[in-house]
Amino acid sequence: MREAVIVEAVRTPVGRGKPGGALSGWHPVDLLAHTLQGLVERAGIDAGEIDDVIAGCVSQAGAQAFNVARNAVLAAGFPESVPATTIDRQCGSSQQALHFAAQGVIAGSYDVAVACGVELMSRVPMFSSTMGQDPFGTRILARYPDGLVNQGISAELIAAKWGLDRGQLDAFSARSHQRAAAATADGRFAAELLPTPVDRGDGSTGETMRADEGIRPDSTPETLAGLRPAFEDEALAQRFPQIQWVVTAGGASQISDGAAAVLVMERSKAEALGLRPRARVHTMAVAGDDPIFMLTGVIPATAQVLRRAGLDIGDIDAFEVNEAFAPVVLAWAQETGAELDKVNVNGGAIANGHPLGASGAKLTTTLLHVLEQTGGRYGLQTMCEGGGMANATVLERLG
């Protein structure tokens, strides 16, 4: 039986996704090309061995339009024979890219594939030109006549339904920063990070980025308690009287720039090339859920992937659950029974950022390295996605 294994995984440090951020002067094509080059150099393979490159990108407009994956392959200097495609499953785009790559390997369509992603939110802001017109049409609005809501309101609804108060959210958010700061200081990110030249778009040169830019080591529940609710809305308060307005910018993922890439191979192919299979893509799942609550898909996706894997939540040694908003992870933990001490042990998107289309591959890269650092066998990654969906993946560390 064919197996899809991960041979290498890298990510750029994550920059603040605004003008002047450490990566804001990069073109998305060039940043992804830099990451692809770093991936094959670390693996020590000929790029001509790659059967396909699958990239996640959410805002496929402006500098990220016209198949950013193929453009990056050419910019990286890969042979013109290497094809590429760009996909959008919202925040889970590059996690879905990993699924497609692994599925292709298992099915025999590929022997070698790259799953990757990029997003420069400083260059192509979320909901910019890709949302310039009504994306829903009349039939969705007829199905949901009261209207869909933004993700911030979904986070508020989750907090209300699962009884999460402001103190719990602030404590979780502060812990994300503290964990990320400790991981950085201890060098736990070093093996996964690809040193990347800083480009703030101001012409300055010479600096190299070696750490995520958004981590705030001085974050505490007390400092976060001073932030105002980010999504309070009088009209929506009448529609959703249960909302307590507890979600702040401090409890939300950061707007970010970054790229990440994962090299997936059929196990015997990796061994024939003299490469070490580091982890097996054990099981994959994707789920849909209520688009009003939107961010709760991680709950059924986790249940589905564990059922398919024949595992229990207690069998998982490390979790990466995207911190889109603090209530998402806390509600997921309540429902699944996962131990929070095993979740996002090096911090999450609240601290080190969420470069949308890159985040799935970014979390895979981190999860692989966490398993190797801790000696854990199984890791589970899941990520909520716009429209009420979620991907879930179980990795099994090898050797």
UniProtKB/TrEMBL annotation:
Q: Where is the Thiolase C-terminal domain?
A: 276-397
Keyword Acyltransferase set for record: yes
- Report the active site residues: 91, 354, 384
Highest taxon above the source species: Bacteria
Tell me, what's a Pfam family for it?
Thiolase_N
Cite the entry's keywords alphabetically.
Answer: Acyltransferase, Transferase
The residues covered by the Thiolase N-terminal domain are: 5-268
Positions of the region Disordered? 194-220
InterPro entries listed in its UniProt record? Thiolase, Thiolase-like, Thiolase_C, Thiolase_CS, Thiolase_N
One Gene Ontology MF term: acyltransferase activity, transferring groups other than amino-acyl groups
Which family, according to UniProt?
A: Belongs to the thiolase-like superfamily. Thiolase family.
Designated name of the protein: Acetyl-CoA acyltransferase
